[in-house]
């Protein structure tokens, strides 16, 4: 398995993203965290590097200058490049990293399930600037107030009416939910079909009945906008259903229809290693800050580095961070080689989240009162880390997926 440290392309990507994180993200991270604002100027700057918008649709060309081999049987590099870049950007600031990559959440299902015409329409909706002069962003509207991680229990419905679908319902905790120029909305098209009836729709901003809701105030990742989105008899043309116009759910017995719930879960298998890598980036940021302090600090008049309990804590952190990184790379490598990575993706996400929380908590303890001050970098990383055990499927959901993979049975 080729990790970035022995592959020139991954190494170059890591170096480029690390330089961007340190020079462009770190200096503004505290400001946007404090003000809970999107870094629009930086997002415009990053767009030129292919770090936002349609990179998920366009492959890796913007990032590396090289197109993927179109042969579906040959190994790809997109997943591995994504985990490399994601760790470095989250090392800079997790909230800003999510602001930069938030549109990718919506691009991913369009890239996986959309027709060529839908992809072209999606790109067109993201071109230019919005009425505030900001670059346009996209949002994936999946989560709901009553469903959380259970994506098979969606209450938002889509009812066929001639050549249109009428969408009704509300979404919550949606990245870019208030500002998006285009949404990918998940709705139940055929309640009797259960999971097989869930489908995705491309909905442009300004469509009658699409109502962006209130912006959420959050514990962490504050530079990334999170908001409610409401759909009040929102009419969407049948051509904007992912996987084809459809006649009802079309899920069949197994729910394997393109654009349905099965494809949605496969999409999450590809994004969870990226989320795990973001968590690793947060953990690494706290670890490196602490390591620098220990190397130059004293405790009770003696060098901190001479105290065994401190050095053992650092050793544990390094082991955990390295293990979480390796697992994320393993899951990404499997995705690039077209292998089933359901278990590895869930493990990468769950372990990354746990390591981020454990490392930031230990750093808070070792630094003492100073780390409790608002605006302290470790205090921010501590807050940012928590969400990684919640979004993209909670830690409990990942363990449930892994348990079923191991035994064939869902835990009750």
Q: Any chance you could write out the topology, listing elements then pairs?
A:
Blueprint: H1 8-35, H2 40-47, H3 55-58, H4 61-64, H5 78-92, H6 94-113, H7 116-125, E1 138-141, E2 157-161, E3 164-175, E4 182-188, E5 198-204, E6 210-215, E7 226-237, H8 261-296, E8 298-299, E9 302-303, H9 308-336, H10 342-367, H11 377-386, H12 395-407
Parallel strand pairs: 1-4
Antiparallel strand pairs: 2-3, 3-7, 4-5, 6-7, 8-9
Helix pairs in contact: 1-5, 5-6, 5-8, 5-9, 6-8, 8-9, 8-10, 8-11, 9-10, 10-11, 10-12
List keywords for this structure.
9 strands, alpha+beta, 14% strand, four-stranded antiparallel sheet, three-stranded mixed sheet, single chain
Q: In a few lines, what is going on in this structure?
A:
The chain is an alpha+beta fold and 412 residues long. The protein contains twelve helices and nine strands.
Number of helices: 12
* Basic shape: globular
Helix/strand-derived category reads alpha+beta
Question: What portion of the residues fall into strands of 2 or more residues?
Answer: 5-15%
Distance between the termini: 36 Å
Q: What is the number of E strands? A: 9
Order of helices and strands, N to C?
Answer: HHHHHHHEEEEEEEHEEHHHH
